[in-house]
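Backbone Fold Data
Goal — fold tokens
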Amino acid sequence: YVLRAKREGFRSRAAFKLKEIDDKYRLLKPGMAVVDLGAAPGGWSQIAAAKVGAVDGKGKVVAVDVLPMGEIPGVAFAQLDFLGNDAPDRLRAMLGGGADLVMSDMAANTTGHRKTDQLRIIGLVETAAAFACEVLKPGGAFLAKVFQSGADAALLAQLKRDFTTVRHVKPASSRQDSSERYLLATGFRGTTG
């Protein structure tokens, strides 16, 4: 998939993972507003921009990362930490409103200690989910990378309260020996506060 990504002009093989998930679950539609958390190097943003029509001005893709990212046609990039207090407001301003989809292919830096790494990953996903609930429009969706056992019980319970459907998915382009999976929550119920 790495060679195929280079050949097809994608910045990472992760682009195929999003493409497969979208082919199956139809997340990305023309005219949508999408936030890509931890976007660098930009493979997911490339797929999202093409699918929502961002290059033609139909949809919007806002990519966020603490790392720099090269320009992608149709993608507005902000080099910032989505954990910052002003991040949700900045992203809403860049989108011109709420998001239809918040997606995250982020992974925490690993230590090699399995339990510590799992806690870091779950913490990152929990934070991304809380952020998604701040910026999503009712009916929106959240997609995030998780590992090993998937999301923990507390996070799943919270997502099941906030979304109508929550599932784990594993695209074929994710190596079979990898513990990588994705958490997909659709049908955001809207903020209750």
Remarks:
- The chain has a mean pLDDT of 86.
- Strands lie at 33-37, 60-65, 75-79, 99-104, 136-146, 163-169, 181-188.
